[in-house]
Write a structure and sequence with these properties.
By secondary structure, this protein is mainly alpha-helical. Helices cover 93% and strands 0% of the residues. It has one domain. The chain has 4 helices and no strands. It is found in: Cell membrane; Membrane.
Length: 164
């Protein structure tokens, strides 16, 4: 059994998770800085014609838009270190297999498997750390956006109560 294929599979999967996390992060940043300001104006307009019962539905609808992409980031945060650990195990298995075939005296052959193990661990941790950074940045933006939506709704409902 050739472990080289599995090494590459682990590395390509980690690269894919990093790309996916970065793409989600960039898309969400574009949403928060370009689309969400326009949606806030839409929320204000919809609040003018929405009854009080519809305000809650409006909040749920727009707050769910803010949450998009967080699941992918959480998956990447969780899966990346595990894939790095899988790469580590495969690298160590490769090292022991090489030692069994060529003996302990061939240090260059043994070190190849150890290098794979360390690279997989480092890559898995790096992908998880970047995804965690992305997640917490987006989570702050989501909280701020939800607070703004609540404020709009409460101001509108308060204004309606005073007008009666």
């Amino acid at each position: 059994m050739d472990l080289e294929f599995f090494h590459r599979l682990v590395f390509y999967t980690l690269y894919f998770l990093f790309f996916l996390s970065t793409a989600v992060f960039i898309e969400r940043l574009l949403y928060f800085f370009f689309t969400f300001p326009a949606e806030k104006k839409l929320i204000k307009k919809e609040l003018e014609v929405t009854k009080d019962e519809g305000a809650e539905l409006l909040y749920v609808n727009f707050s769910s838009k803010l949450e998009r992409g967080k699941g992918i980031l959480m998956f990447s945060i969780t899966a990346s270190p595990l894939l790095g650990l899988l790469g580590t195990v495969l690298g160590i298995i490769d090292s022991f297999k090489t030692m069994a075939e060529k003996g302990v005296s061939d240090i260059s052959a043994v070190s190849k498997g150890i290098a794979f193990a360390l690279e997989a661990t480092a890559l898995g941790i790096a992908v998880a750390l970047f995804s965690l950074l992305y997640y917490h940045t987006l989570n702050g933006l989501v909280k701020r956006g939800k607070t703004e939506i609540k404020r709009f709704i409460l101001q509108n409902l308060k204004g309606r109560g005073e007008g009666d």
